[in-house]
Design brief:
The chain contains three helices and no strands. It is an all-alpha fold. It has one domain. The termini are far apart.
Length: 102
């Protein structure tokens, strides 16, 4: 595929996940304040743990590639990282909304 097509797909997935996150967050006010805060806090903590885990794995990969092989580390793709992080937040938000939303 061409580069512009790949970038369009990534931005489309990012826009879709942002739209779904906004729609999910806008449906939370009908819940009580404590439950709304709990749902957002749990989803944010799981997404943050995912980000920390991903960065840690990338760091280990970089050390291994640069230290013990002949190759050079190319880094992580920021578009992929952003899309997967926003999808992870969306899925955990939907999961906890279903679990605690009633």
């Amino acid at each position: 595929m061409e580069d512009w097509m790949i970038i369009t797909i990534f931005f489309g997935a990012l826009a879709l996940s942002v739209l779904l996150i906004v729609m999910t967050l806008s449906s939370l006010p009908q819940l009580g304040d404590e439950r709304k805060k709990l749902i957002k806090m749990k989803a944010q903590s799981y997404a943050f743990a995912f980000v920390i885990g991903s960065v840690f794995i990338q760091m280990v990969e970089m050390i291994y590639i640069n230290g013990w092989t002949e190759g050079s580390y190319e880094g992580m793709n920021p578009f992929t990282f952003l899309v997967t992080t926003s999808l992870m937040y969306l899925f955990t938000l939907l999961f906890f909304k279903r679990k605690y939303g009633g």
